[in-house]
Queue: 2 jobs
Job 1
Amino acid sequence: MDFATLIQILDSAVRLMTPLLLACLAGLYSERAGVFDIGLEGKMLMAAFASASVAYATGSAWLGLLAGIAGAAAMAGLHGVASIGFRGNQLISGVAINFLASGLTVLLGQKIFGLGGRTPSLSGAARFGEITLPFADSLRPVPVIGPIYAELVSGHTVLVYVAFAMVPLTWWVLYRTRFGLRLRAVGENPASVDTAGVSVVRLRFAAVMICGVLCGIAGAYLATGISAGFVKEMTAGRGFIALAALIFAKWRPWGALGATFLFGLLEAVANRFPNLDLGFVTVPSMFMNALPYILTVVILAGFVGRAIPPRAGGEPYVKER
Amino acid sequence: MERMPKWADVILTPLISLVLAFAISALVILAIGESPAEALKVMVQGALGSSYGWGFTLYYTTNFVFTGLAVMVAYHAGLFNIGGEGQAAMGGLGVALVVLALPWPHWALALPAAAMGAALFGALWALVPAWLQARRGSHIVITTIMFNFIAAAALNYMLVNVLRPVGSMDPASARFPEAAHLPKLSEMALGLGVEWGRNTPANVTFFLAIAACLLVWLLIWRTRLGYEIRAFGKSEPAALYAGISPVRITVLAMLVSGALAGLMAVNNVMGEAERLVLNAVEGAGFIGIAVALMGRNHPLGVLLAALLFGFLYQGGGELALWTSIPRELIVVIQALVILFTGALDNMVRMPLERLFAALRRKGA
């Protein structure tokens, strides 16, 4: 494998990890606040559909992004009402949201566009274009650093940079702000937060809505960044891979970056080499596709470093009277 | 706990949730510019209006009974098994391996063997998440989700690289031998001299599903293990104090659950397709969640809920055929049923409890 191929695979990994990273950070806010979210998939799907539809109608990817965020936030609101407001089962609510998005996107898509659930393909300003960073072209001839900068760092859509910027931002919010401290506390011991006079319901709702916004960006990237339009079931399990990455990352922002990069890399390698020949054994692509899930199970089993979820996760908080 | 009379808890609450789910589904149909009444008519006629429709409805019902029971048994142990999809897929592998392994002389011999294979593979696929939950404390919901994806990949590999007959391009197993053909309900009816449901996939597995309902009822409410499962599901510390081993109950409940999900494959793989194809489960594992929730985790309720979803499935297919409403409407209805009977249960329950409390005060 030569250097150019390596750069190409890494570049592809960066593109593929972006939706995972955004969704993973989305889940991080929600789960750190004690609200399990297996509905990341559905929220991303809804956002992908909403953003592609609005981007097609208006010709603006940015308006599409807003619509995507609104779509995912609506789903997040539903999750909040069911699991925080009515203290319902968070897992069941997440399952319902996944199905709701899966059905509604096709139903609405067929009604509006009549293409069997697809949106028409997007072009021009309806998609997020690739940004060439300054000096990318002039630095290209420089050995090693040139290609890395020009191919790997430069030449992505703005949402990729947003996703990467979200990592330090999330770290800062969680560990350096009052909101973040309370958010983490409400996921570990909501009663203590309540005793301190801070509303558990409001905090959790805020976390769930942030989760919706980030899923919205992830979905918009899928439909208007990485591909040109919405296709039925286009998230293809990415919400669950993000969930796996979240566990892999042990619910930490920098860990999320590493885990999603690893999973993006696995996908990129599987795409590039459908049957990876390691000399002594040929790895089928199915194995590469399943590897994120297998790794997550191994991590969950605690054989390689233990992943301990937030303590109050999954439990609705009932205020004492 | 005596907040509501039993009938209100068991019948009224799910009924109201269901009405809410269907009301919103009707709004969705209105929103896409179709008539809900017309849609309902097409669905009822297509699914229940003829023996042909019933033949499909009962076929789907059979699938959903198995996956619904699977979710139900785990639920009684306080475990949320979302892995029915993967367990049913693995059950399909079990069925295919058993049926293709031997030259079966008669279906009556092949059926129990295939059922054992299906149950065994399904149960084994549930064993790892169960063991991890019981011994290592990893959350069963997450591991079963992961196992769904791993099952899909494993099945894909098996079909492409192992089970695919030489020269075939399809990622599917060879056709099952003619002798292992399970009698369809239509053929059984014809044997009795009745013309019923010609060319429909409902088959003898339907009776297996009914038997499974009965056996699960016996297991949960009439055996020591069932008692332990329910005790453990209600309160883990209390069960522990009573000498019930959490590891044992978690593993056993999940084994039964996985076996039930796996058994679905007898219906769809052996009874209908008569070969193993990619994605044979088609989401039935997830519908089991809705079925169990709606059926209030009782076998009779599961049977009725499975019938309802069988009707929705067949009706949805007819909708896509005769109107411009896509099949995916069923997915929306399914989502709303899960939402209202599962996640928004308290929304219906709390006002009802208040109502009954008020009535009781007036009566006292």
Note: Residues 68 and 272 of chain A are 30 Å apart (CA to CA).
Job 2
Amino acid sequence: MLLLQSEGFVMGKRVLAVASAGGHWQQMMLLRDSFSGHQTLFLTTLDGLPEQFDAHPARILRDCNRNDLIGIVICTLQLSWQLLRFRPDAVISTGALPGVIALALGRMLGAKTIWIDSVANAEEMSMSGKLAKRFAHHWLSQWQHVAQAEGAEYAGAVL
Amino acid sequence: MIFATVGTQLPFPRLMDALNALAASTSEDVIAQTGEATANRSAMQEMRSLQPAEFSDLFNRARVVVSHAGIGSILSARKFGKPLIIVPRRHALDEHRNDHQMATARQVEGSQGIYVAWETDALADLLASDLSPATEAMSPAREHLIAHIAKLLS
């Protein structure tokens, strides 16, 4: 109830949208119409970014990559907290590694998980995308030829 | 004003050096987000990183933006309606972990307001040419992806 009071009540499902700052986030913003009818919590890695896009409610995560073990631990703890509090029905990410962790945790908690690989990866799935494969109920590439080669779904692209 | 940005992950000294050389021969201001720890180029204003609000402000004020071939930069140019010249990072020069920016540049070349400088030599002519702004029109491919995700969530 506390959450509903603080975030404002919106009908529909609870959707957790996770995207690192930069191109990943920009792509999520171009896709946000797809969950506009749901109660959404945005997670990104750069303070001030959600405000620039009028994306709220939003929380900031510690960014991490595969070479940064401490970052991975901190980011995982932050994500666990956000997921346990928000209890999403679905987790969606456009990348990068924090999104993979979010999908893994979301799946453990019974959420539907959706990975949209960044449109930057026109030749093969991204490294984080490859990691996300085992946690994603729906694993999408934004390139038809990549999807075909890697066994992903293709349903369009932000470009 | 020319605004240059290399994204948040990696510096791109080849592009910055080329812009600095151009800045020395023009009266137009050049402001660059370099991703580098130190600012040492004399002809332009350098910043390592930018807050989101500063980034938006510089993008808005720019006549033209020059960047690496990152999706964030391309989508920003469309959002802010600015002409964008992209220089793809090359794996062979150790500028990124693979050549995905070359692929991105090939894919977006020719779309409105997005210009590709395959070599930094091409920047001077491109900057002096008549540039049209990028636009954020809804594409059928994007509409389709949005509809598909909405269906997955319903």
Note: Chain A touches chain B at residues 13, 15, 21-27, 30-31, 33-35, 37-38, 46-49, 51-52, 90, 92, 112, 114, 116, 118-123, 138, 140, 142, 155-159 (CB under 8 Å).
